[in-house]
Amino acid sequence: MTIRVLVADDHAAVRAGIVLVLGGAADIEVVGEAGDGEEAVAMAREIRPDVVLMDVRMPKMDGISATRELAGVTEVLILTTFDVDEYVFGALRAGAAGFLLKNTDADSLVEAVRLVARGDGLISPAVTRRLISAFAEQPVRREPPKDLLTPREREVLACVARGLSNAEIAKELDMAEATTKTHVSRVLNKLGLRSRVQAAIYYSEGS
Q: What residues does the Response regulatory domain cover (predicted)?
């Protein structure tokens, strides 16, 4: 299956570079380019790409606000130069499926798009340690109401919080990957969350 991608960045040269990188992958097709957040939201709603590669700092509407607008429409992978907590946490809370820095090498960017398109979350190694540290400062896990999730869904949520992919969860819990994906979707819907990364934050934060 071809992964359809929309690239949103206000710098034409940066967009061109990203398009060139993604164009080298046989299973990825860039179906649109946007130069600001408003255009990205409008185009994504119209053409329904599988993944939007979203910059943070853009005119008219920033990437975090645009990500929030696209919750439930498509998967958003933040790709930015700015490695600051405000952007990291803001993007993930807005529903981004992943967060990468623009110094990511070409192969890693292509693989990140594939992971996000499959429904897996992805965080740049450069910011993962800070996220773990932030969670460690809030050691009490937030448990969903007992009657909200089934026992199996609770197991899946715990695995998601550990950063496991659907394939890894399927192997650990001894079930089909397609079944795992269904469980993850149900968990997100029941908890009112936009992404598996938000599920990890939900599980790890104190209530």
A: 4-117
